[in-house]
Design brief:
The radius of gyration is 16 Å and the shape is flat. The protein is mainly beta. It contains one helix and six strands, in the order αββββββ.
Length: 107
């Protein structure tokens, strides 16, 4: 289970890494706290990107043990607008929300 926590944390940090076209961007803030049953991290860069996430184990030691995660990431799009996505990921899957994301119509 520790591997899963560390893997998710490193995956999140990789997503927050600047792509090649932002070579001049630098990390302006980075915090992380990884424990055996939970983790959290936050990172910001000079190009306006940011990401933060926290996760913990639900039902520790039980048959239905699972990791639950909530977080957000933001970036400045080519149009100069800052886009923000908040999300949770748990036993019900990945559930993103953002003003720019399409929403399933209500039946």
């Amino acid at each position: 289970m520790k591997f899963v926590i560390v893997f998710v944390a490193l995956f999140g940090l990789a997503l927050a890494a600047p792509p090649q076209e932002y070579k001049d961007a630098v990390v302006t803030r980075q915090d992380a706290d990884v424990g055996p049953e939970s983790y959290q991290y936050a990172v910001e860069s000079s190009d306006g990107k940011s990401a933060s996430e926290e996760g913990h184990i639900e039902n520790l030691g039980k048959e239905d043990e699972a990791i639950a995660v909530k977080g957000q990431y933001s970036y400045v799009g080519p149009d100069g607008v800052t886009y923000t996505v908040t999300y949770i990921a748990d036993k019900n899957g990945f559930q993103p929300q953002g003003a720019h994301l399409p929403v399933e119509p209500k039946l």
